[in-house]
Amino acid sequence: MKQTITDILCENGIKNVGFCAFCDVEGNLLDCRAKNRLPQNAKTIIMCVFPYKVKEEAPKFLSHYASVPDYHNVCGDMLNKACEKLKEKYPQNHFEWFCDNSPIPEVHTAAIAGLGAKGDNGLLITKEYGSFVFLGEIVSDINIDCKNNYSECSHCGNCKIACPVALDKTKCLSNLSQKKQLNDNELQILRENNILWGCDICSNACPMNNSAKCTDIKEFIVGYRDEYTLGEDTTNRPYTWRGEKVINRNYKNLIK
Length: 256
Ligand code: B12
Known about the structure:
Blueprint: H1 2-11, E1 16-21, E2 44-51, H2 71-89, E3 95-98, H3 106-112, E4 117-118, E5 124-125, E6 133-140, H4 158-162, H5 173-177, H6 184-192, H7 201-204, H8 218-222, H9 244-253
């Protein structure tokens, strides 16, 4: 059954898949509205990896994740199509997909599913694509035997040394770049670190990212933009949800 599910996902462009028993994360679900979409009697989480780095070189002032079309839409479409196929194949079962806005603690679950190691920077680091991957999942009441493969990075400490706020979650530069209100100090930190949207500093410092491969997901490649310019069409970008004001504030804050 595992193989059939993996094949169906692969046919729909999702090539990196792992399985986690729902009971392994049930006690750590995140509180969000999507929680009520979890299938009753959920037994299995089918975790999916979506590589997103398009080019080796960094985009201008943007993090890699911010240079591709909004992953909620790209990964969501792929997961939705795969769910439809799974429902056709197993009509007696339920399949619900989630991506990011999810009650599933995605990094931890993907690590249990054996898709990579949980890094000290809180990110999943895969062998093939490093941490430049998005995560999404299909939760189902289908019964699959899952092994817990949880692993962590080597704790080399490079990410913490490189991070301007020493991995203090409350001050994370990615978080700051997405906040509506910033004080002068916060604006200065973003300016000093050339941050327009999102942050890859901890990821770039990670030795496990040294040979991270680029994506072959065509929606990411076709919609790639290596910079942001004032007044451009912001539809379907990772910064769209915050409105133009926030990205434009960050843009004006940069030393160009
Ligand atoms: C909230 C959130 C954020 C917040 C974190 C706020 C916070 N206080 O934790 C902010 C906005 C900062 C953020 C930033 C980023 N995020 Co985010 N985020 C999430 C989200 C929605 C929930 C995570 C969470 O709260 N888990 C619950 C807690 C209890 O779980 P935990 O295991 O104890 O710890 C988590 C966090 O505390 C965090 N964490 C642990 N240590 C550290 C250290 C630092 C410095 C930070 C910032 C976070 C952090 O990571 C853990 C795993 O999720 C997940 C999606 C999801 N549903 O899981 C995406 C998710 C973790 N984010 C993702 C991404 C891509 C990013 C960015 C890389 C984007 C970017 N380039 O800027 C950055 C990376 C910053 C970083 N080092 O983590 C991906 C990660 C993919 C991967 N390879 O692991 C996810 C899975 C979304 C997705 N579906 O793809 N994120």
